[in-house]
Each structure stands twice: as C-alpha cells, then as structure tokens.
Amino acid sequence: MRIISTERSQVLAARVAAKLGVPLVETKFTRFPDGEMYLRCGELDDETLIVSSTVDNDMFVQTLLLIDAADRSKNTLVAPYLGYSRQDRRFVPGEPISARAVARALSAGTERAFVVNIHDPGVLQHFGVPAKNITIAPAIGGYIGDLHLKNPLILAPDEGAIEFATGVAAVGGWDCDHLEKTRLSGDEVRIAPKTIDAAGREVVIVDDIISTGGTLATAACMLREQGAASIHAACVHGVFTSGAYTRLRAAGIASVVSSDTYENASSFISAANAIATAIRDDAHH
Ligand code: R5P
Fold first, then answer.
1. Pocket probe mutation, ligand 1, options 89, 159, 211, max atoms within 8 Å of Cβ
2. In this predicted structure, what is the pLDDT of residue 215?
3. pLDDT at position 184
4. Structural domain total, the chain
C-alpha cells in the first residue's frame, strides 16, 4: 500500500503513513495556463490510500485527479472532511442533494471510502462503495485531558451533538450535557445547559464542525453570564469561515482547537490514529 494526498491534507496523510508504516508518494500539482489543474504522481503499487479532505472545490478536483492517476490500483478514499456534506437534502425545490453528488463522483474508481465525524452519517448511503464513518471523539477527549481542567463540564451545543459529546466525556468520566435554547420573549433567548449548572465550572463546548462560530459565540457569552469559570471549545472540523476563530476568541473562549481533518493553525488534535486503526481493522474487506 502507498499513500497519496491532496495539498490541503498533506500533514494528516504523512501522519497516517507513519502510523501504518507505509510509504508516502510524492504528488505534484501545478496549473495549465488556463488555470486547470495538472497532476503528476510518483510511482504507485497495487493498493493506494488517497487521503483527501475536500475542503474546497480545488481539493475536490485534486481528489478526482488522484483517484484517476491511481487507476491501476485498488483504491481506498479517506475524505476526513467531506465538503458539501451539509447540503444532504433538498430543502426547497430546485436544489441538488449536493452530498449525494459528491459522494457519487468520488465513488468512481474507488473501492471503499472513509470519512471522519460526518455531520449526518446518512450521507454514507450515497457512496456507490462501502463507506464508513470514523469518530475521533476519543482523540478530542485525550486533548481535553491534557488541558488538566478541574472537573470539566463537556457541553454539546445542541441535541444533534450529544452522542459525540458523550464519547468525548467518556474519556475522562467527565460530566456531559447539552445546551438548550429557551425563548424568553419575542427577541430574547436563553442558552444554558439542560440539566447541569455551569456556574463555577470549567466548560468545554465540543462539536463536529465550527463554521461561522455563530452558535458557539452566543453560547459562550451566555455561559459567562451564568458564571462559568472558563470556556474552551474543541471540534473535529475547524472550518472557521468569515473570521470565526477571531470571533470565538473575542467572545472570551479561552482556547479553540480543531483536528487535522481540516488543516489549519488550530489543528492540535490528530485524526491519524483513528484513521490508521480503521484502515487496519478493515484490511480484509
Ligand atoms: C450543526 O448542527 C453543526 O453540528 C454545527 O453546530 C454547525 O454546523 C456549526 O456552524 P456554525 O459554526 O456556523 O454555527
């Protein structure tokens, strides 16, 4: 087996290669004068692991080019962050099911696929090949343990993230709850943990994705008003669009970290171990 990756998943790919003890193959992406992408890969063998978070349209095209360059091998696609996966249904007539469109396209030339903490696992059904979701809740929990917080309270920002937050909290046997929005009046809402009082607690809000950071920033302000001793945030996919990282820090969140499924300077947590384990466990697929 050899590993190739897109430009925005190079670090994670190298970590997965080290964990699996398999070689990384060089890929060189350049552009034709008209802006189209050109790829040249080093030598591949009969099995290829393509590590590629489709964080933007260019990375999506790079992934398609990698899959095609490896057309003589048995290909496994690892798309730790699957772009377009949040448009997973037709909300109004005339829309595409974008998650289905990308899953179908990425299945051609692939034998099996893996994603990491996908927002809705239902998207996996759109792949034309066996597809699995890997959770890195244990890795996020490991990171929180290293912060040495006193009796931390792990909070999911909404009901949808309860399972993930429970997995994170299980690492240290910490308290876990989710935030609930209560409408107090026409223009007033209260966001607070459903059952556990945040007063005096070191709170860690965990989520699969931070995009605009809107929900988290509002929640952080309210938790501060409720007397939380400190507020931290950890997510899997740190998209941080529209100045989200700054917004969260400005809202008084003491630390904001994400994983290397979406490589950026806040990627202090790695999905490599979970990915390598999933690949190994699925070796006799
Ligand atoms: C939503 O259900 C997701 O789990 C995230 O909470 C959401 O996508 C985060 O988006 P934003 O950072 O833009 O509030």
1. 211
2. 84
3. 87
4. 2
Asked whether 248 lines ligand 1 (CB < 6 A), one says: no
- Between the CA of 273 and the centroid of ligand 1 the distance, in Å, is 25
pTM of the entire structure? 0.96
Per the residue annotation, which of 19, 74, 132, 181 is the catalytic one? 181
265 inside domain: no
Distance 271 CA to ligand 1 centre (A): 20
Residue 232 lies in a domain: yes
For residue 208 and ligand 1, the question of a CB distance below 6 A is answered with yes
Max CA distance (Å), the chain: 64
Q: What is the pLDDT of residue 213?
A: 93
Give the helix ranges, DSSP H, for the chain: 10-20, 57-69, 98-107, 137-146, 162-172, 214-225, 244-250, 272-281
| Ligand 1 centroid distance, CA of 82 (Å) | 15
Residues 104 and 26 in one domain: yes
From the list 41, 6, 45, the residue with the least C-alpha distance to 22 is 45
Q: Are residues 17 and 128 in the same domain?
A: yes
Query: Average pLDDT by consecutive 10-residue portion of the chain (285 residues)?
Result: 98 98 98 98 97 98 98 97 96 97 98 97 97 98 97 95 97 97 84 94 97 92 95 98 95 97 98 98 78
